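Hey everyone, long-time lurker, first post.

I ran two proteins through the pipeline my lab uses and got sequence/structure pairs for each. Pasting them in order. The first:
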Amino acid sequence: MKPNEIAIPKKTVYMIGFVVFMALLILAVWLPLSRSGQYPNASNNVSNLVAGSPEKFALLSGQGGQRSVVSACGLQPASVETMPDDARIQGSCCSRMDLHKYQEQVDGMKKYAGISQIPDDPYDVPVSLAKQLFEYQRTIQLTPDQQAVYDQAMQMNNGHGPCCCKCWRWTAFEGQGKYLISELGWSAEEVAAVWLLEDGCGGAGHEHA
């Protein structure tokens, strides 16, 4: 042993290694649990609630029951990507929900029931669906003609594109629009109509596709 070197018993080295290993193991188990605790599974709290009903409106508007993930203008795709797939993004982004408008939106969206890329309730979007639409936004490359259709749809949707602000909805419904145009051959009018019905900003008004 060289001068000034400190001899550390092997037993101490093994003990330090064991403590570090246990700390990493606890961290690996705790992080996923803590993350899932931030976004409770909401599949049960809506399973018996009919979209458009006063009971579901009460839950989504924050007047009764615990929402899974509360929607907000500042909620970005990167945050949604960290959420468990069985969580749901619930409620309005900007203004308080209005029962009459909510019921009109849900009623209008019934015509799209056979298309899994379109939620049946604009104020109750499964995280798994949002992630799927994010993937479309990243990977679908439109042809020039398809891009022209998309651009026209953006202008037709009250002039503000897939959503009123560039939040998680904007990215998700951009991907949705790309899918509907490239895979189903939708027109600009059809895409703009479904975007209008999917408006999750809240507030009173009339939404007719």
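...and the second, right after it:
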Amino acid sequence: MTEHQREFSPANEYDVRRLPFAKRLEDLLPGDCIWPINSGGPYLFCAAKAVGKYCPHHKTRLIHKRGSGHATNEPQTR
């Protein structure tokens, strides 16, 4: 995989729960999570309150993905 290719992270239970609140790209506002939560158009994004580009849940998934070479589908617990 080149630096410009990205492995798709399949949706998990958290992403399914976010669907009613998801936004299309053109509807995202500053401070919305930009994690894509579906794999086909129209593409929808999490839109939960973000810390940087991602909400805490998706930031954790990204860190796990980068650290292990693949995405985790385990929901973040708090």
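Reply from user beta_strand_b:
Welcome! Quick read of the second one: The beta strands are 23-24, 44-45. Confidence is low (pLDDT under 50) at residues 71-78.
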